[in-house]
Design goal:
The protein is an alpha/beta fold and 78 residues long. 23% of the residues lie in helices and 29% in strands. The chain has two helices and three strands. A three-stranded parallel sheet has the order 1-2-3, covered by helices on one side. It starts with a strand and ends in a 13-residue tail after the last strand. The mean pLDDT is 88.
Length: 78
């Protein structure tokens, strides 16, 4: 069976997470799912919300890491 991996990168997106997670969870089809949420050191409640909303999902993994800002790779907006 084919599968689909959903990779959600999160940094201070607490207000959007419920809708995004509902949309991902609502995907239909005859395929296996893997959902990986990577929180990049959010300072809001993003990590807690991700864990709370997905705690009983069998196909999800929530990863927390220190903010990975890499200066110089992405120029600041003008």
């Amino acid at each position: 069976m084919l599968g689909v991996s959903f990779l959600l990168t999160v940094y201070n997106k607490a207000m959007y997470l419920p809708a995004v997670l509902a949309a991902v969870r609502g995907q239909t089809g005859d395929f296996a799912r893997e959902i990986v949420i990577v929180d990049d050191g959010s300072t809001d409640d993003s990590l807690a919300i991700a864990r709370q909303l997905t705690h009983d999902w069998p196909d999800v993994r929530v990863v927390a890491q220190v903010n990975g800002d890499l200066p110089g790779l992405i120029p600041p907006a003008a």
